[in-house]
Amino acid sequence: MPKPQGNGEDTSSSLVAAAADSFTFGPSVASNSMHRLPTPMKKKMPGQGFPSGRAHAVHLPRPSAPATSLPGSPTRSRYCMADVMAEARQDFQKARGLHPPPRLSAPQPHMSQSYHPPHPATAPAAPYRPFPIVSFNHMSKEVLDYELSRDFYCGVLGFIEIPRPAFENEGVWLYGFGLSLHLIKSRYPEKRLLLKGRRIEHFEEALPNVDHMAFITSNLNEVEKQLREHNVFYKRFGSHKTNIHQIFLFDPDGNVIEISNCAPPVGETTCPRVVGMGGPASPQSRL
């Protein structure tokens, strides 16, 4: 760093400029004190230079300063961000009247210090409060053509259309079998078409293991008969181990619907007996 001249002129600006290109700290500057306020410069008398030849007030490190010394260069101090953050956090919490977090005994380079609140398990358990839900309200489905979907749910499955508020987005409200169904026009039809194609392609080979809604019927064979009459694509599956027989089908937008002959009681995995078939079962699916 250039030594200031003693010609009586103000050399503070030149010192700042010189310090901007220097990352060297003298032996009197500790490695963990770089975040502290600089030592004030002594007043310069006319015709004199700075007493020590150093101006600690202008030794400003750059954030991009190298962390280690280079061959042939003066010793460089390591900028310990852990110390800076820990002391700043202590000052902030003291100002708020809080206790500072425990500080590590020996901060290491590249090691962050943070305060972690007590584990929830150590906190006293709050009394149980049931969530204030009283009933299921409705289900929404994203559709490409809400009028086509309305015709399917009403004309094939037996839903009815009910009044709907004048929302900005287009759609219809349906009701049937104790369920309110809201059909909403998709804002991203290209993505919806892609999803529909993938589901139908997979459905041709395996069960549609995706999100779906399910209904119970008292006559599964009649359901199958009417699906054939409406030319609806479906697949039928049955298990003698569980006594559950199912029909899976798509709505016009690729949403999966399940219709089964029974549902196991809560806590059980099988139906007690085969019910809800309504007559001879069809051995083949409508493909």
UniProtKB/TrEMBL annotation:
* Pfam families reported for this sequence: Glyoxalase
Q: Would you say which domain of life the source belongs to?
A: Eukaryota
Domain VOC, residue spans: 135-262
UniProt xrefs under PROSITE patterns: VOC
Q: Write out the ranges of the annotated region (Disordered).
A: 25-50, 96-122
Q: Which PANTHER family match?
A: F18B13.24 PROTEIN, PTHR46142
Q: What is this protein called?
A: VOC domain-containing protein
Q: Which organism is it from?
A: Nannochloropsis salina CCMP1776
